[in-house]
Amino acid sequence: MYAKFHSIGAYAPSKVLSNKDLEKMVDTSDEWILKRTGISERRIAGDGEVTSDMATIASDIAIDRAGLEKSDIDLVVCATVTPDYFNMPSTACIISDKLGIKNVQAFDISAACSGFVYALSVAKAFIESGMKKHVLIVGAEKFSSIVDYTDRSTCILFGDGAGAAVISVTEDKSEAMIDIHASADGSYADFLVTPAPGTINPVSQRVIDEGLNFVQMKGNETFKLAVKTLTKDVKDILAKNSIDSKDIPHFIPHQANYRIIKAVGDALKMSKEQVVVTVGKYGNTSAASIPMAINDIYESGRLKKGELMLLDTFGGGLTWASALLPFAGETK
Ligand code: UT7
Fold first, then answer.
1. pTM above 0.90?
2. How many alpha carbons fall within 13 Å on the CB side of residue 4?
3. Domains in the chain, start-ordered, CATH in brackets?
4. One of 6, 19, 93, 113 is an active-site residue; which one?
5. How much distance in Å is there from the Cα of 11 to the middle of ligand 1?
6. Which tens digit of pLDDT belongs to each residue from 271-314?
7. How far apart are CA 69 and CA 64, in angstroms?
């Protein structure tokens, strides 16, 4: 029993927040943002549009492209750190309901930007153990709900969006996901943190006054660790599977900062054509970033059936993960 990456779907809200817009909100400039991050604009969810809404649209597309009925899905996993509700119910439960999927196991994963690849590892394990046949995995974020738009060090980075994939059982080894590495180090928890709400900081006037409900990041420290960890991670997974970086047509790294992507791509001696970059138009969409990037190359016709993808991600926790897998869906 193997697990294959069967289909992809994504959704980006229509509202655009450009660098020029941000110039009017904080002390920054289009030039600084572009030079330091590669980001030109990001998408922001509309009024009343929540994480599960974006996730449901992306999921609908992914299920349709897999040629399946909703009733074929037997597990729903949503990776998000901006859930509809911070305590319960899980966003996966809401997505299942909005899709009309009844009586399935559904739960969320909290691994920040690494969430989608973590969800991929869960889907792989459930399928290879024979417990499930068609797993819907979603990475969806409404980061605009936890960003402080007076903090120039974070508000320029993040955007909203969703991506989803169906992971299905196969007996054909040539379609199978090859390998996934996922890891974490909680001693760096303070590098990327939303201090409230939670048991340490339950909702209170102090939380509001001190803005503890907003994301905080040690940007420069995170940047340096990201480059080091991502580079080692991809080198390890390639070496373990005896694959040369030149034989990877699609390197799809987490889209946090173009400088990080370029540094890792260069360390792997990847050409520009191999490295997928969407950070310029979407910013950092956390758990949604990798599936949105996969969807981009799928929709543009760049991603063909059977081609190898190398995923690599890093985020709050700190967490990181990489995956090596062929695209087992039909070419668009
Ligand atoms: O997705 C999870 C993983 N996340 C990441 O990997 C994000 C990693 N971090 C980054 O992408 C970068 O660290 C940032 C883009 C956040 C910041 O870039 P940096 O090159 O690390 O800049 P810095 O934090 O070292 O700040 C340099 C200067 C500072 O001014 P001084 O102290 O040199 O006078 C900042 O105050 O840039 C200033 N600065 C800004 N200036 C204009 C910080 N943000 C801005 C801004 N506009 N938006």
1. yes
2. 21
3. 2-172 (3.40.47.10), 179-326 (3.40.47.10)
4. 113
5. 28
6. 999 999 999 999 999 999 999 999 999 999 999 999 999 999 99
7. 7
